[in-house]
Amino acid sequence: MRDLLLAASSLNWGKISLAIFGSMFQGVMDKAERRALGAHYTSEANTLKALGPLFLDEMHALRDQARGKSARLRTFLNLLPTLRFLNPACGSGN
Length: 94
Fold this sequence. Notes:
By secondary structure, the protein is mostly helical. It has one domain. Helices cover about 65% and strands about 0% of the residues. It has helices at about 1-10, 20-30, 30-35, 45-65, 70-80.
């Protein structure tokens, strides 16, 4: 078990599509059980449809305005770590 854990931790998980985990999550549960629990995987595309208008569109606009302008870029970069968001569903982390 230890060897399997070490092997899994050495893998670069950043190259793995999160959609795979969503599909696996939904695939291992019975459809009726999933529905009763409200357990549903939301794709990245659908997640972005909701988050874009809420705050991502504005963040992208600020980033684009800051490009090539040192002071604006520094302000934008200082803003990023101060932002906090609550994702009560936790989902795939998108």
